[in-house]
Write a structure and sequence with these properties.
2 strands; glycoprotein; 22 helices; about 575 residues; mainly alpha; Glypican 2
Length: about 575
């Protein structure tokens, strides 16, 4: 009887065991004893010892990050794989941002090399041109021109230099030298030459060339420096932003290596799961997006200015030509200019044994200057020209917009990182194989409040990210001002005009030279020194006795009055009270 009763019980027990085994193979709960061969192989391929790896699945009660079902991971394996998941994440961020870093680093080097050599070539061109044309007269006064290029280099390199002052000082020194050269029959004391230079702006001995050259060179140098500094800032921002302090190891481990612990190392996380994890990890970086896009736009616009109205190559090449034009203008008008100077500063002492004729170039002809055709336009050590450099930069800047917000999508689109978006039912959903049901969260820190995969404290914004946002804003502001020919570092000290000077209309005009609001065809009374005397410049400290006097280079009210009236009407008055300027 007992044997007959035990037989059905035996059959029922076998049936229950079979059902349990079959359901365990298909369901979410694994069965102890399942092989961990695939997990051990992948773990070994990553360079880790399989000494602590179970041969078959064991109870997962010891797991801290992965689901506590039957597992192929020991505690040590889980810790190792958690660190590996963090390294994988950081490498993914680094790899996908390499385009940014490479572009900013290489473009900055190329532009910097190019701009510096343009300055060198400009100085070399002037030395060659003026040595041929003026000979010893130039070599004896070469330091005046050398100092101009020293200051231009210092400005481009980031020095606290006002380009308006640089050119003002250059023309002041040059007028003293040229005035002496066109009047070799007179002796001029240092005080007398200072009187000449103090009133050069009203005399306009060089015509309108100083203003044109200052405007052209200033806005080209402002834009060039802003672009170079902007590219360096972009490089630094990317370097800092991609040094991620990952506080989302749990989410990274759960999506990438928990399938491995479950014995399914080839199973990739669902695409939406990956997005939620990576968006949580890069929440602070996504907050850079607005300022980043503004920064990229500003870089793009300044680069366009440099190949258009603020063309650095044309500005650098024009320095020697325009300075030569200025000297020729003073030579051609030397009699008129000298007469006015003698009336204002007094009659100089004649040089014994010299005639009273002005210095003229032998033969009355000038040697032609070297000019370049577009076909033989010189290049620098960068192996290119500005137009080509700008074109290449713009092509690389375009895809940079939206980078930080799109970065999670870029990472999760990699087949090694996540399953394809169309494979929603055969991917790892964080617990087992199947569809991932939660919605994908938004971008940025605040949006992570509902992120089911990564716990982010939205009440504590990242300090480093806030600093990067401020750096981007400052760089963008500089670039935007540079688009108008303004240097932010000198806006307050230059009466709001920036290093571009006081020519507000020209700074915003893109069709200069020749057709701007102050072109010769436009009779602008604001540019007439007789109707609008120039404002006295600021006193500047200089080495040497002439620059340390109390009066500096400030004009007196009497001197301004003399050039504010018609010279013919004022002549008898000046003869009576000569000299009025001294």
């Amino acid at each position: 009887m007992d044997a007959r009763l035990s037989f059905p019980r035996y059959r029922m027990l076998v049936l229950l065991c079979t059902v349990t085994a079959l359901s365990g193979a298909r369901g979410p709960v694994a069965v102890a004893g399942r092989s961990c061969a695939d997990t051990r192989q992948v773990y070994s391929e990553k360079g880790y010892s399989t000494g602590t790896t179970p041969l078959t699945q064991i109870s997962g009660e010891h797991l801290r990050l992965c689901p506590q079902d039957y597992t192929c991971c020991s505690s040590q394996m889980e810790e190792t794989l958690a660190l590996q998941s963090e390294r994988d994440f950081l490498k993914a961020v680094e790899d996908n941002s390499q385009f940014l870093l490479t572009t900013f680093t290489q473009r900055h080097r190329k532009f910097d090399e190019f701009f510096r050599e343009l300055i060198d070539l400009s100085e070399k061109s002037m030395n060659q041109m003026f040595t041929k044309t003026y000979g010893r007269l130039f070599t004896q006064n070469v330091h005046v021109f050398q100092e101009l290029f020293v200051e231009l280099r210092r400005y481009y390199s980031g020095g606290s230099v006002s380009l308006t002052e640089v050119f003002s000082d250059f023309w002041s020194r040059l007028v003293e030298r040229v005035f002496s050269l066109v009047n070799p029959q007179y002796q001029f004391s240092e005080d007398y030459l200072e009187c000449v230079s103090k009133h050069a702006e009203q005399l306009q001995p060089f015509g309108d060339v100083p203003r044109k050259l200052r405007v052209q060179v200033s806005r080209a140098f402002i834009a060039a420096r802003a672009l170079s500094q902007g590219l360096a800032t972009g490089r630094d921002i990317v370097n800092k932003a991609t040094k991620v302090n990952s506080e989302c190891v749990r989410g990274l481990m759960r999506q990438w290596y928990c399938p491995m612990c479950r014995g399914m190392p080839s199973l990739r996380p669902c695409h939406s799961l990956c997005l939620n994890v990576i968006k949580g990890c890069l929440a602070n970086q996504a907050d850079l997006e607005t300022e980043w896009n503004n920064f990229i736009d500003a870089l793009y616009q300044v680069s366009e200015k440099l190949e258009g109205p603020f063309h650095m190559e044309l500005a650098a090449e024009s320095i020697s030509v325009k300075v030569s034009e200025a000297i020729m203008h003073m030579q051609e008008n030397s009699v008129t200019i000298s007469t006015k100077v003698f009336q204002g500063c007094g009659n100089p002492r004649p040089v014994p044994g010299r005639s009273t004729r002005s210095l003229k170039e032998p033969g009355g002809s000038r040697r032609p200057f070297r000019t370049y055709s577009p076909e033989e336009k010189p290049t620098t050590a960068a192996g290119t020209n500005l137009d080509r450099l700008v074109t290449e930069l713009k092509e690389r800047l375009r895809p940079m917009r939206g980078f930080w917000v799109s970065l999670p999508h870029t990472i999760c689109s990699d087949e090694k990182m996540a399953a394809d978006v169309t494979n929603e039912d055969r991917c790892w959903n964080g617990q087992t194989r199947g569809r991932y049901l939660p919605d994908v969260t938004g971008d940025g820190l605040v949006s992570q409040i509902n992120n089911p995969e990564v716990g982010v404290d939205i009440a504590r914004p990242d300090v480093r990210t806030r600093q990067l946002i401020m750096e981007l804003r400052v760089a963008t502001n500089k670039l935007r001002h540079a688009q108008s020919g303004q240097d932010m570092d000198f806006m307050d000290s230059e009466e709001g005009s920036g290093s571009g000077g006081e020519d507000h209309g020209e700074r915003y005009n893109d069709d200069w030279p020749g057709y701007g609001p102050y072109s010769p065809s436009n009779n602008n009374p604001a540019r007439n020194p007789a109707s609008n005397p120039a404002k006295p410049p600021r006193v500047r400290e200089r080495n040497g006795p002439k620059w340390n006097r109390n009066n500096g280079r400030v004009r007196s009210a009497t001197s301004r009055l003399i050039f504010s009236v018609n010279p013919l009407l004022s002549l008898p008055f000046m003869v009576t009270v000569v000299p009025m300027w001294r």
